[in-house]
Specification:
By secondary structure, this protein is an alpha+beta fold. It has one domain. It is 35% helix and 27% strand. The chain is built from 5 helices and 10 strands; from the N terminus they run H-E-E-E-H-E-E-E-H-H-E-E-E-E-H. A 5-stranded antiparallel β-sheet has the order 1-10-9-8-6. A 3-stranded antiparallel β-sheet has the order 4-5-7, with no helix packed on it. It starts with a helix and ends with a helix.
Length: 208
């Protein structure tokens, strides 16, 4: 009788261990697949080392009465909702630390008279509109205004006539690129932008 109970106990224990192992393996596989998908997305946005990746054209959603603005990570294409000040102890420093820790770069806000893009920890240099087509990768890599790696203050890029709409930039992670502000979205609830990035060598080993 004791032998039968022992055999049943061992069988049940083995079944539980096998079920746990299968569940654990599925969890690891899902995490690996999610990581691979994110890596491929980063690689698709950034392109090869030292070269412009594809032109990305997106709409930055502004804050609405029922939802906060979205802040975009240019390198990964990920967006996160802007946190409420009260969620981070009403501290502007805490909000900037949260933005930097998540690698976020740009958002916008819209009002009845216009709109503004907001950059976070990005070095931004206004250039002529024609530079969008004529600027080469080596021009950005050699530009002294983009070489320093210190933190940069928040910048407001206001839409409007006689205002710049094309910029060279460097993100807080060191990625170089070109940014063009296209104007308000069709529903006037966001700002359309296009951008293209140059991949630093250090990011290629991570992304590929």
């Amino acid at each position: 009788m004791n032998g039968k109970r022992y055999l049943v106990s061992v069988t049940v224990l083995n079944s539980l261990l096998l079920a746990f192992a299968a569940c654990f393996c599925r969890h690891i596989l899902c995490e690996a697949q999610a990581g691979d998908a994110n890596d491929f997305r980063i690689a698709a946005i950034l392109g090869p080392a030292g070269k412009f990746g594809p032109v990305m054209e997106i709409t930055l959603p502004a804050a609405q009465s029922d939802r906060p603005a979205q802040i975009r990570d240019l390198e990964t294409g990920r967006s996160l909702p802007e946190p409420a000040v009260e969620d981070l102890n009403s501290s502007a420093r805490a909000i900037m630390a949260w933005i930097r820790s998540n690698g976020l770069d740009i958002s916008c806000f819209v009002w009845s008279g216009g709109a503004t893009c907001v950059t976070y920890d990005m070095k931004v240099v206004a250039v002529e509109g024609k530079c969008w087509e004529t600027t080469r990768e080596e021009d950005l890599l050699a530009d002294p205004a983009l070489t320093t790696r210190t933190h940069s203050p928040r910048r407001l890029l206001v839409l409007g006539e006689n205002r710049p709409n094309t910029y060279m930039f460097r993100t807080g992670e060191g990625t170089l690129g070109m940014l063009r502000i296209l104007g308000l979205s069709q529903d006037r609830r966001g700002v359309k932008i296009s951008y293209k990035l140059i991949t630093p060598v250090k990011l290629v080993s991570v992304a590929l």
